[in-house]
Amino acid sequence: MTLPAIVLVVTFFLVPLVLTFWISLNDWPLLGQPQFIGISNYVQALSDSNFGDAMGFTLLYTVIITPVLFLLGLGLAFLVRRRGRASRVFQSIYFMPVCIGFASGAFLWLYLGQPQIGPLLSLLQSAGLTNANTNLYTTMWGAMTVVIAMVTWKVVGLQMLLLLSGLQSIPEEVNEAARIDGANAWQLFRRITLPLLRPTLALVLVFSVAGSLLAFDQFYIMTNGGPANSTITAVYQIYRTSFISFRLGYGAALSVLLMIILAIVSAVQLLLLRNTDNN
Amino acid sequence: MTTSAMPSRSAASNTATRSRRSPLRAVPALAWWIVSILLAIGFIYPVAVMVSMALKGPIEQSAIPPTLLPRNPTLGNFTHLTSVQGLNVFQNLANSVEVTLATTIGTVIVSTLAGYALARAPFPGRNLVFVAILATFMIPFQAVITPLFMVLRTLGLNNSLVGLTLVYITFNLPFGLFIMRNAFAAIPASLEEAALIDGCGIVGALRRVMLPVAVPAVVTTALLTFFASWNEFFAALVLITDQSKFTLPVTLTLVSSGQLGSINWGALQAGVALTVVPCILVYLLLQRYYVSGLLSGALK
């Protein structure tokens, strides 16, 4: 009964996974004969400024968006923690954009953030924050701000929900005991809530960081990598290498490097969060 | 709600202890309502703007500043979608429906069968199979997209909706399998033994005894797969090159590239509406299963 599952996983996952390593050791054009070149692709990647820039931008984006999502998600979790029907209604409203795809969300916010005709810019302008000529898509920071706003709107509900269920798993007696010992709200949060929330925090952070390191849809759609290629992410660069320039071998090598970076970042996070737990 | 304003220890109703325990206990109930409602407006606003824009006529679309509600609502943008760069977007909508339905049904069947076997039938190498399938979780499919493209080409499934569906089933499988296996493992073995003794056979036991009990897990698996495959963009962009075979999210790139470099924003938002509205409807109808499934999948 596991046969269909095994066939699918072997054909469309394990074989491609093994092939990724093999292709990455070749000069592999779309048409024509592949040629074994050893680790040349990797050597080239290490001094490839395009990939370096893309990786740098991806890390910058991750470093900025992770705390934004986490803090807002935690804030929302505390807000909807109240019992009662109203709180549940707000929960499902905040969570609603999670079911919308990154691509459709990106096309929606592409319009929202347009200069002049975009409602978001019109709102910002009436708040006196921008003027009639402001075009967020002309600078790297402006473009990234619109993308971050879209992603926050789209995924913060999921973080809220995960953190909320973490909060609710803290036994009531623990909080009660701390309060009887005279802990104030901040001490309660710092000494009880935060440490007991650590497993959930680890999960939320690892998910969110991995998702950001693999970002593609939103930048492909909203910024097209611009202005001046300043918002090209790692996956975007792999896409351009493999499917625009058709350098499949080099694209595979970049994929392997991205997998390694992803594995290291995830492992470091898990180690850090586990270590502080022991103290 | 008002009890939180009175810090009386004896009146410790559920609501009172909850809000007293929260770091926001000093915030009066009114502020809670105001903040919650403002946030709710903020979350709904983009969707409202999208629907409004999709219903605006050509002149109102480029109004500066943009109008909040369409003055003369029209379906013109949806009509326009029938001919975008020689393409009928509704045909692409049909592609999306086809791929999503096939992926959802396929994932449910494959993960139910495998989940049952992994939870119940002891066979050699069981753990190895489970670990291999779960590894699909750990390694993002973006990383194997280049050889995936080549494997599909070798199988003659490149540029085909069947190929795309098989890829989607594979990458939705770990989550589905995980949910189904946990559901089956939670059902007492005695129930199934009784069915086997009554002469059901393994397949009969699965169909008559286990499946009805596991229906919530099936709904969760189906929902997660529905959202994932309906919204998927990257694999569809890479693996499908024939425009008439594009799924809806990828087709939107054609709507947004427009003629002569100018974008028809109304038509684009009409296309976004076609993509988003089914998701929101399904979410509103079945959110209980969706949310509980996400939580059990993520936290267990």
Attribute tags:
heterodimer, A: about 280 residues, mainly alpha, MetI-like fold, two-stranded antiparallel ribbon, B: about 300 residues, disordered N terminus
Plain-language structure description:
The complex is a heterodimer of chains A (279) and B (300). Chain A is an all-alpha fold and 279 residues long. Chain A has a single domain (28-278), classed as MetI-like fold (Orthogonal Bundle). Chain A is 73% helix and 1% strand. Chain A has helices at 3-24, 40-46, 49-79, 85-95, 102-112, 119-126, 140-168, 172-180, 185-196, 198-213, 217-222, 234-244, 248-278, and strands spanning 26-27, 35-36. A two-stranded antiparallel sheet of chain A has the order 1-2. In chain A, helix 3 (49-79) packs across helix 7 and helix 3 (49-79) crosses helix 12. Chain A starts with a helix and ends with a helix. The model of chain A has no long low-confidence stretch (mean pLDDT 91). By secondary structure, chain B is mainly alpha-helical. Chain B folds into two domains: 2-80, no CATH class; 89-299, MetI-like fold, CATH 1.10.3720. In chain B, helix 2 packs across helix 14. Chain B is globular. The two termini of chain B are 33 Å apart. Classes of the chains: A mainly alpha (279), B mainly alpha (300). Chains A and B meet through helix 1, helix 3, helix 4, helix 5 and helix 6 of A and helix 1, helix 2, helix 5, helix 6 and helix 7 of B.
